[in-house]
Automatic annotation (TrEMBL):
GO terms for molecular function: ATP binding; metal ion binding. It is found in: Cytoplasm. This is tRNA threonylcarbamoyladenosine biosynthesis protein TsaE. Keywords: ATP-binding, Cytoplasm, Magnesium, Metal-binding, Nucleotide-binding, tRNA processing. It comes from Faecalibaculum rodentium.
Length: 159
């Protein structure tokens, strides 16, 4: 599913739409894109849409920050940028087993990620223009397949 975004308001709207699909599920979102592409901005919008009351900011130096969404479920924000080349098991499997996890720079920890993920590649355009390319793996594959996204826009398909 490709989504063209032209403003911060549209980013927040897209995050709200995604939040409706994933709330109350255990899911890992993998956000990839160049520095300044909007990964943290999107994560902040998604957290707000899920009812996170705390201020969400980048965990670049702490690697991981934990929050609670509006339903009391874990919302975990991981920045894997500083983990490039880390070959050992970092214990993220426990984090990914409950709630919603958002991983920025997920390409740096591919062996740590669960099989069922939502991958969002963000490409930066001019100004606030962004392209969000959303794909799912495992149980999320059908939800974000191009033909499903067009035919079932807005419908919940994951039990």
């Amino acid at each position: 599913m490709i989504r063209e975004i032209h403003s911060l308001q549209e980013t927040a709207q897209f995050a709200e739409e995604l939040a409706q699909k994933i709330q109350n599920h255990t899911v890992t979102l993998c956000l990839d894109g160049d520095l300044g592409a909007g990964k943290t901005t999107f994560t902040k919008s998604l957290g707000r849409a899920l009812g996170v009351k705390s201020v969400i900011n980048s965990p670049t130096f702490t690697i991981m920050k934990n929050y609670t969404d509006g339903a009391g479920n874990p919302f975990t924000h991981i920045d894997a940028y500083r983990l490039e080349g880390a070959g050992q098991d970092l214990g993220f499997d426990e984090v990914f087993d409950e709630g919603i996890s958002v991983v920025e720079w997920s390409q740096y920890i591919p062996d740590q990620l669960p099989a069922d993920t939502i991958r969002i590649a963000i490409t930066q355009g001019t100004g606030e223009d962004r392209t969000f390319d959303v794909t799912g793996t495992g149980v999320w594959a059908a939800v974000f397949a191009p033909e499903t996204a067009q035919a079932d826009a807005g419908k919940e398909t994951v039990a």
